[in-house]
Amino acid sequence: MMQSGGVPPVKPAQWVKFFKAISEAKSISAACRIAGMSRTSFYRYVENDVSIKHRYDEAQQAGREFLEDAALKRAVHGVRKEIPYLYEGTVVHTVVETRYSDQLLITMLKARVPAYRDDQSTAIQRGVQDELERMMLMLKQRISAQAFNEVIDALVEDQKLLPGATTYEDPTIST
Known about the structure:
The chain has 175 residues and is mainly alpha-helical. 62% of the residues lie in helices and 11% in strands.
């Protein structure tokens, strides 16, 4: 049975699948495939049904937060990667390294800290410095001293963001 306007009805279970997919940052096309509905059905419903539009907006926001969480995890906590060392075509040793995305961290800073986007004045630069120091403190509390120093070194050397920054000494480690 067709809805008015020639759109097949969408069952509640299909909407559940659709909104779950959208909240996981899937595209509308992918969510429609997962839910077993047509894009035309989705667009007609969202155009004519306020509750569907509201649920779609909520799922989209959840999808944005899902992506932001994934980006923050990658930028701040890094991604572990195995690096094989080869000798005559054979893996002789593997090192596990945590890699951080400096560019992603900078992009997130620009998105969240308005002063970071526009460095026209000294006051703004001070605000950026304060925010960076706050974020560095947060980072210090979450990762090891070595990982923290690697992140700071990368920011200083690659991005020239924190001239004069010092390294973090973990008081729990004796030298």
